[in-house]
Amino acid sequence: MTKESENNPFKVIDSNEIYKNPWITLQEDKVIRPGGEEGIFGIVSQSGGSTVIPIDGDTVYLSREFRYAINDYSIEGFSGGIEAGESFLGAAKRELKEELGATADQWTDLGVINPLTAIVRSPKAMFMATVLTMGTSKPDQGEVIEVLAMPFTEAIKMVMSSQITHGATCVALQKIALMQRR
């Protein structure tokens, strides 16, 4: 059942798990809306994940990967879901190693975003990784990842022209740009 908070103006009457697989859960809540009318909410839940933006000097590394849900390729930071018992930072370090083959000596926490707040419960943590040591990548089975290396300013232009549309990547790159201006 959906956890009600003291700030929630909706009263949950009933909550049912409609569908579940290893990656997502779909739940339907019957509610009384703040105005008194009955209604429903569908909520997609995922464990959450991390996105890491590795930077070496003025070079940023991004991935280009086919994303089934959008039926197209997406340019993004190195991203993945949190595994059982793993922290956001732990997931970021694992994804950087698996997908880029790199480790980093310095990590900057860029905060958390909640994409699609009307229907999705899946917090995404963002990190910047610097002082990189490159090695060999070992993507998960089924992942075909092309690594892109470009000037940081080019990545920002790609965000602004909607060539990069992955939410956590867009936010992380813009936060890094603001940090660099200060």
Provide a brief overview of the structure:
By secondary structure, the chain is an alpha+beta fold. It is 20% helix and 46% strand.
Q: Which keywords apply here?
A:
alpha+beta, elongated, Nucleoside Triphosphate Pyrophosphohydrolase, seven-stranded mixed beta sheet, 182 residues
**DSSP strand tally:** 11
Secondary-structure element pattern, one letter each: EEEEEEEHEEEEHH
Question: Mean pLDDT, rounded to whole units?
Answer: 94
CATH topology term of the largest domain: Nucleoside Triphosphate Pyrophosphohydrolase
CATH architecture of the largest domain: Alpha-Beta Complex
What is the alpha-carbon Rg in Å?
19 Å
The dominant shape is elongated
Low-confidence stretches: none
Number of discrete domains: 2
Gap between N and C termini, in Å? 44 Å
Notes on the structure:
Strand 4 and strand 5 form a beta hairpin. The protein has 2 domains: 11-45; 49-181, Nucleoside Triphosphate Pyrophosphohydrolase (Alpha-Beta Complex). It has helices at 88-100, 152-160, 167-181, and strands spanning 11-20, 25-32, 38-45, 49-56, 59-67, 72-76, 78-81, 102-113, 120-121, 124-134, 145-151. The mean pLDDT is 94. By secondary structure, it is an alpha+beta fold. Strands 4, 5, 6, 7, 8, 10 and 11 form a 7-stranded mixed β-sheet that branches. A 4-stranded mixed β-sheet has the order 1-2-3-9, with no helix packed on it.
Question: Any chance you could write out the topology, listing elements then pairs?
Answer:
Blueprint: E1 11-20, E2 25-32, E3 38-45, E4 49-56, E5 59-67, E6 72-76, E7 78-81, H1 88-100, E8 102-113, E9 120-121, E10 124-134, E11 145-151, H2 152-160, H3 167-181
Parallel strand pairs: 3-9, 4-10
Antiparallel strand pairs: 1-2, 2-3, 4-5, 4-7, 5-6, 5-11, 8-10
